[in-house]
Fold this sequence. Notes:
The structure is a homotrimer. Chain A has eleven helices and 19 strands. Chain A has about 450 residues and is an alpha/beta fold. Residues about 435-450 of chain A have low confidence and may be disordered. In chain A, helix 6 packs across helix 8 (about 320-340) and helix 9 (about 370-385) crosses helix 11 (about 405-415). The interface of A and B includes residues 358, 364, 366 and 378 of A. Chains A, B, C: This is DUF4910 domain-containing protein. Chains A, B, C: InterPro entries: DUF2172 (IPR032610), DUF4910 (IPR032589), UCP015244 (IPR012353), UCP01524_HTH (IPR032622), WH-like_DNA-bd_sf (IPR036388).
Amino acid sequence: xxxxxxxxxxxxxxxxxxxxxxxxxxxxxxxxxxxxxxxxxxxxxxxxxxxxxxxxxxxxxxxxxxxxxxxxxxxxxxxxxxxxxxxxxxxxxxxxxxxxxxxxxxxxxxxxxxxxxxxxxxxxxxxxxxxxxxxxxxxxxxxxxxxxxxxxxxxxxxxxxxxxxxxxxxxxxxxxxxxxxxxxxxxxxxxxxxxxxxxxxxxxxxxxxxxxxxxxxxxxxxxxxxxxxxxxxxxxxxxxxxxxxxxxxxxxxxxxxxxxxxxxxxxxxxxxxxxxxxxxxxxxxxxxxxxxxxxxxxxxxxxxxxxxxxxxxxxxxxxxxxxxxxxxxxxxxxxxxxxxxxxxxxxxxxxxxxxxxxxxxxxxxxxxxxxxxxxxxxxxxxxxxxxxxxxxxxxxxxxxxxxxxxxxxxxxxxxxxxxxxxxxxxxxxxxxxxxxxxxxxxxxxxxxxxxx
Amino acid sequence: xxxxxxxxxxxxxxxxxxxxxxxxxxxxxxxxxxxxxxxxxxxxxxxxxxxxxxxxxxxxxxxxxxxxxxxxxxxxxxxxxxxxxxxxxxxxxxxxxxxxxxxxxxxxxxxxxxxxxxxxxxxxxxxxxxxxxxxxxxxxxxxxxxxxxxxxxxxxxxxxxxxxxxxxxxxxxxxxxxxxxxxxxxxxxxxxxxxxxxxxxxxxxxxxxxxxxxxxxxxxxxxxxxxxxxxxxxxxxxxxxxxxxxxxxxxxxxxxxxxxxxxxxxxxxxxxxxxxxxxxxxxxxxxxxxxxxxxxxxxxxxxxxxxxxxxxxxxxxxxxxxxxxxxxxxxxxxxxxxxxxxxxxxxxxxxxxxxxxxxxxxxxxxxxxxxxxxxxxxxxxxxxxxxxxxxxxxxxxxxxxxxxxxxxxxxxxxxxxxxxxxxxxxxxxxxxxxxxxxxxxxxxxxxxxxxx
Amino acid sequence: xxxxxxxxxxxxxxxxxxxxxxxxxxxxxxxxxxxxxxxxxxxxxxxxxxxxxxxxxxxxxxxxxxxxxxxxxxxxxxxxxxxxxxxxxxxxxxxxxxxxxxxxxxxxxxxxxxxxxxxxxxxxxxxxxxxxxxxxxxxxxxxxxxxxxxxxxxxxxxxxxxxxxxxxxxxxxxxxxxxxxxxxxxxxxxxxxxxxxxxxxxxxxxxxxxxxxxxxxxxxxxxxxxxxxxxxxxxxxxxxxxxxxxxxxxxxxxxxxxxxxxxxxxxxxxxxxxxxxxxxxxxxxxxxxxxxxxxxxxxxxxxxxxxxxxxxxxxxxxxxxxxxxxxxxxxxxxxxxxxxxxxxxxxxxxxxxxxxxxxxxxxxxxxxxxxxxxxxxxxxxxxxxxxxxxxxxxxxxxxxxxxxxxxxxxxxxxxxxxxxxxxxxxxxxxxxxxxxxxxxxxxxxxxxxxxx
Lengths: 452, 452, 452
């Protein structure tokens, strides 16, 4: 199912503005409600200005025999993104000065953009340069670059509390698979899971934005709100390729986002590495900028810059796999479930341990115990010993080298027995793991959808 | 000598209450003064209540031919500890439901208790189940479970100051060697050493308690006093078996107890490992509970749960060795001597180094020096450089990778020369290592003892 | 050139006082201005007193045939430094009691001093003891030990600011190469470099002192000034021998001196080790004493005590190399340039990243970039992200694993564009690396020098 969605979205000509973005969001809206917000060209956001809207109908290069030797219809990367309209005959030299290739990867079309400087150009496989033997060429770029709008997609699943969790991905790299169609796909699957799960402690926000300008625009509008409410967030990018995970920490490095993701990765036993935040990256550059410094990390697979097909036409369907996408969806869901399950408690009995058997929490026969009894007693005693207001469930689970959400079920039991009280003071309903994990990846049939 | 004491104590039927505990404490009182304190059944201590006192005269199972096929006389573990009185004929099925075995260790009798739920049962080797071929059996448990007392043994060696050091072991695991007759034996040897040593800076308290209920009871009575006075403490358990040491840190993890024990273990060159505190353990669970959080760790050898004979009849005399017990006594004594020797000083000359040769502390001929001179000068200069009120001798010795008590002798010299002053402000007598380390393990002949 | 200077200084009879020190400083003054400061015998400095001044004209031992079998003319180490005047005939036994040898290094003359106790003696190769077959000997020590002066050499290169950097070396180990003629040589080369470089942010102070008494004396006079002004300092000693560097941290361990030296060593790729401060050492013992605790470390090569020729006549010209001396000069200069280049900035755009292309700082064509572009953009984005007032350039360079002074050039660019402002508030001229690094090691011809 994910790959069917992939195949619908992959051919769309997407850039940082334009109808391609709207088309993609409309298709995703079949699965999950996504509001399209439009912001006009020329609008200022911090140090930036929303550019003109760009749309392209066709673009090609014809040789002297009238053959289209380069055609946007063949691959979206053939045209430099944001190329200005052009129609005319150019000499071979003039044309070659406008053509980008990758000599070191002669079969790949490079990905080139010129968002903020008016320009035009084409991108082709280096091996095809030898076909340019004519002395002049007809060039057509039937595009518009006019005042219009930049489109942001936003989804929301409400929870019981005031705090929220952010997932953010980007919509602007056309006809590339890992970077970046995998992010919107995985984020949408996670969004769909949460819609169906319900009974959430946190509110969940899902952003589909053009990279950089989109997150800057969003922060210029809603940054103060996020600063106040955000408990954790993740940039979802490069999640379809490679055997292992990379988690890039938030700039603060010790936020709930980081602790939950690292906890889940470690407990998963799957290959992974943890890297420090850096300004080489995606929208976490903006989310973690000094004035906001939000708790936003990024769980990826093989990340931008770490694979040779990056930013070329070889970052295609063959590079990614449904299994990798699905495994990433699972991992994001486990992280979210860990955050949902997490809580900080305080023991009610701090003068020595409470007597557990009189509350039915300990076998009345001592001496030898089964493995299961030992595990349960171990979780109980760790929770009682470390619930001092300073350690949340993730901390305690890390001390035990156990899965945090397992611990949450035992914590609910101790809460019911009056041995723990939540530090927040609020009533905490017993944590219940979602029962239908199998279902989350099956998109809701279109007929049952309501579009937003 | 230790093993003779072992042989007297091993056969005693000990539980968390009863005459077995008193008998054990009375025998130990031949070596060191131990006060027996009695607390009545029904008394409340925090969340716990002192149970009825349990004593047993005999217990057996007879087959139809009148043969005793299980007899408490053969092994104390045959009867579930705290079994209620019973006398009657039971069917094979009824009996087998009351019999505990360890299928995975068919030659071991398991250790089973039922302190807080009235019940009875027997424990046998799994291999012997095949002997139970009759259809009914005569069962006799001639025990009493009545209002009585719980007994705590306490010893004390006074020192010059107000602070104290605690050693605590437990008295309630009958006829098992490493866990737990080794603890009372080692603790008593250390106690005897300190009695003879005298001239102590700290007061020393020695507790012999039933595990869990005993330490909780003690804390309910004296916890505030300990919180005020305790400088360091250790739970002495599992100290007779295995080639290497395990030190389990206090919950706070950086207390004097931890620093001294870790320092001594490292300097000893003996194999050891350091583990974090956890609520899987013995009475440090109570001593380190949130309200008290005392500086109490535990120096063990092969610890509870880490050897297959744990909590079975195979934890017997063959499992432990006199050498291991003795080596542990030595290690505890070295830790205590390190704590006795430890002090925080302040240099009187902080504007550059003082001139050492004019005080006879430095060779007047410079250039080349013997190894001994270099060592001595090195200790002097480290003491002067780091005695800034923030580093005690253990810290400074750790920086030098030297034995702390060696450093103490040099510190006394500098104190005498006026180059150091104690931070505590009190007069500190020159540290003197005890000269008779050879003697400590030889129990004082009974005739010379005064009982308490 | 360095080795020519070495050859002029090596034969001079230097001690902690006397004309040898003055002669050495006068020769160095041909290269760099060095002021000679004289302090009288008997003057008190903290716990110390300046000793009498010692000078020696000749010293020898003659056998019965009138042959000089030991002669100060042959090697400065033959006479115990600070030997009192003596002239007379002594028996073989009396003489041997005054003779120092190194049995484990029979071909080496040991280095022995007796600064603070009036005494005399000779030092010879252990192998030569067999030549002492006569029953009596004529001994002449034509020395003076009288009230006089202790000489300190001091140089200074002024900078724009108020803070200063200290280099300190010692003048008192005669006719030994690594420890210690290498220190004065390297320090003088660095001093000469800074004189020619000019345009300095920091003031630079260069001390040439007798070890221990000299730094104590200096601190007694100027310690409070140093405490107020010193940003970083290094003791320059043992810098001519061995393939790798040793950096000994200041006692505080995290000062600018430490961070700059460790940064430069790591970026150099040269073999090195970092060690903690200890009171086994040279004048950092005094500079880091508790009352001052200055930010003074020590960059060495094979350090005192780590090579067998240490403090013997085998620490000679063959032990050191011009390459090693030169490489150390280079390393000190790189450290100083790193300190000069270091600054703490604050980003002016903290709400998301500023738009770089409109300031000409970012390629307007995106997608693929050259390695150089990526490097430059990377430096820019790191500087903007981490310039929050808490991280200086060394910190940011360490995060990037880049050379700090490279980062400084990019920082100047951002400063010019108004994207960074200095935290200090002061006007910061653009950092410019010195262009004439090749020249620094060529001493200025004597004719062009001005003496101080």
